[in-house]
What does this fold into?
Amino acid sequence: MLALSIFASASPVEAAPFASEAAPIISGYGDFRFQYDPTRLALPDGTQLLNAHGLVLDPRDKSIILTYEPVHPSDDKHCMIKWKPDGTGGVTIGPGEELCAGTPHGLRLSIEDDEYFLYHANNAQSLHKTRMDGSIVWALHGPPTPDPKFLPNKPTWFAAVPGSGRVYMSDGYGSNYIHAYTTKGTYLGYSFGGRGTGDGQFSTCHSINWDARVGQLIVSDRENHRHQFFSTPTDAKAAPNVTYESQFTVPELKRPCNLRVASDNKTAVVPALEGPVGILNASNQLVSLVDVGGLLGDQGHKYPHDAMLLPSGDLIVATWNPGRLSYWKRL
It folds into this structure.
């Protein structure tokens, strides 16, 4: 049987890692072609994912961490799974209901004074900072102030600005404002954005991240079909204000959920909710497209929500409802 593929077919040498499969699933093109490996990222016993939302790579041991919403929260009290670097040995971690009540969403790593932390955005108006094992450092609930323009409040993601002592929380499913906090959880009295289509405005500011390639914040402005860049001081004594700098669109990625820079500090990966995952070069030009939804949609992998290129070059993808994980071996 022929391999299932998109844009390019696999040679016998490239298909060798899974040559025993009757029909290997292959996607991508150029230097970024991948083969789906269904044996990795298996869920721990008793775990079913309603949503697979956010991914993080633990820099200490390269293990993979996912935040998810369980199908049966009365039976599964957790919302985090950790796998070994090769995608095996999945186990649930974290304190359970104290962290997981509501809809766990975006997950972001922050390195602060040589310590590692995770920032969790929850659609149910809650924000958490935890250690890497999920133990809670602090928790906040509700909008930063009673100002009506900050309602509704449904946080989606965080970004940490290295060395600044600040994090920015994106209220992507609510007010479309982005709020500045200290790493201690104190609101700094500064927010930017709001709903609209102009420069610096958003229509679902779904994700915010720090793009080390350019030293700026990048916002995945999903329903405006674009990414926007903002500069902000990294000096801890400076004001948290941001300045709109630029934007770009990738026509093949209509509803971008996140942009994550790979360990080479050049390549970026962008999951798009309508089905594909794009690989961008240092100039944010599309250099490969992995048709996750088209090739695995019949297995429930319909809506890519987060994705990550591992140090090995392999790709992992988390999809929204129904929550699914897929591991793609780079060829």
About this structure: The two ends are 19 Å apart (CA to CA). Confidence is low (pLDDT under 50) at residues 1-20. The chain has one domain: 39-262+281-290. The longest helix spans residues 292-296.
